[in-house]
Amino acid sequence: MSTYNIVTLPGDGIGPECLDATLHVLQAVLERVPKLKLNLSRHEAGAEHYRKHGVAIPQPVLDECLAADAVLLAAIGLPDVRKPDGTEVQPEMMMGLRRAMGLYAAVRPVKLYPGVASPLNTASQGIDMIILRENLEGLFASFGGGCLLNDTVASDTLMITREGTERVVDYAFRLAEKRKGRPSDGKRRVTCVDKANVFRSFAFFRKIFLEVAQRYPNIESDAAYVDAMSLYMVTEPSQWDVLVMENQFGDILSDLGAAIVGGLGLAPSAEIGNAHALFQPSHGTAPQLTGKNVANPIATILSAAMMLDWLADRHADEHAREASQLIESTVAALLSQGMLKTADQGGNVTTSGVAEAIVDAIAAQGAAESANSTNCAAS
Ligand SMILES: NC(=O)c1ccc[n+]([C@@H]2O[C@H](COP(=O)([O-])OP(=O)(O)OC[C@H]3O[C@@H](n4cnc5c(N)ncnc54)[C@H](O)[C@@H]3O)[C@@H](O)[C@H]2O)c1
């Protein structure tokens, strides 16, 4: 029996609805994989918490995140809840969690599932790449710092370190080893996305990338400038496997990535460190959809699948692997049948309706498997 302590943070806006749908699915998965046990705790944190209590994430909740096996967060932040300096609560809480948990690698899959419409007419060979965003350094290293001089000049410093770059690039190659390669021809390839033609910091990022690439002779490596990559992702999306990049570039290109595979409602993410990991959809709190049961919960549900897959790797646990695959394969099958078309996908399936469809499909597979094993035993 494998038991994991999972902290769930529903957050703000559509976050609680997306998390509830995900917990419904997890419950069905646990019934199918009885040797897996999740101790789930649930805590308030985010903009509403800040509005009521003056703090976005209480220290005991942060401590519990650090003690947990993994954290599953839905979405946080509300545009009308701001700190006295005018900024939102969300970046401070996310950067605080990332820094405290050492989450240096943000893994953002850009995968076009059969049955989902891409706005591109260049997607016929498929889209299945990972945007790997360095998550602690780059332009975000100066978060909470920066400088405003006499109301005339403002600056933020972009920071690239050897240690930070080596670990995320190494992670990129290890990820490529586990994947099936790019959709166009199955070649495993890691691409460094930078601006090395202009900035010393990015030339250094690329230099370290090329050094690390030497350790992985079986995986192709190349580099592209970020402006060109934003074009290539649209004109030849099947050519890419793993793209590794600086923090701010990853922040931007991962939203572009979501747009070409059906939108933010289908975009999960994992944030990984050496000792901790946090999983959350790539989207925000979509305040205009809150409480209407119309948000797409699939990004959160697939983030939970990524969590189980990470637990499986970390603990060599085939039960967690089975649970992860059960979620992803069921979601993929239902998407291909057009059964999960929420409003953002041009349909009218509700948030809770998505969860119910997945739960029903998981239960039906379980019933079919038991009937098969009974028939086999009888024959
Ligand atoms: N990590 C996070 O929790 C996170 C990330 C981004 C933004 N935010 C916060 O979310 C709030 C709103 O920000 P925003 O509007 O820029 O981004 P957003 O991701 O909430 O919304 C962008 C667009 O995508 C749509 N969308 C997002 N998620 C969806 C879903 N699950 N189903 C259907 N449609 C969905 C929204 O309706 C909107 O049109 C802000 O307070 C922001 O700070 C939080």
Shape summary = globular
In the residues, how many domains can be counted? 2
Estimate the mean pLDDT confidence. Answer: 96
Instruction: Give the tally of β-strands.
Output: 12
Number of helices: 11
The helix content, as a percent range, equals 40-55%
Strand content: 15-25%
Ligands: nicotinamide-adenine-dinucleotide
Query: Which sequence of SSEs, written as H and E, runs from N to C?
Result: EHEHHEHEEEEHEHEHEHEEHHH
Largest sheet: 10 strands, mixed
Please report the first level of CATH classification, the CATH class of the largest domain: Alpha Beta
Q: Low-confidence spans: pLDDT under 50, at least 5 residues? A: none
User: Which strands sit side by side, in order, in the main sheet?
Assistant: 2-1-3-12-11-4-5-10-8-9
Give structural attributes.
Isopropylmalate Dehydrogenase; ten-stranded mixed β-sheet; two-stranded antiparallel ribbon; 11 helices; binds nicotinamide-adenine-dinucleotide; NAD; IsoPropMal-DH-like_dom; metal-binding; 3-isopropylmalate dehydrogenase; manganese
Question: Overview of this structure, please?
Answer:
Helix content is 44%, strand content 17%. The protein has eleven helices and twelve strands. It has helices at 15-32, 47-53, 59-67, 89-101, 162-178, 200-213, 226-235, 247-260, 298-315, 318-336, 351-378, and strands at 2-11, 36-42, 70-75, 105-111, 128-134, 147-149, 153-155, 189-194, 220-225, 242-245, 270-272, 277-279. Strands 2-1-3-12-11-4-5-10-8-9 form a ten-stranded mixed sheet, sandwiched between helices. The radius of gyration is 21 Å and the shape is globular. 46% of the residues are buried. Residues 14, 75-79, 88, 90, 94, 264-265, 280, 283-289, 295-296, 299, 344 line the site of nicotinamide-adenine-dinucleotide (NAD).
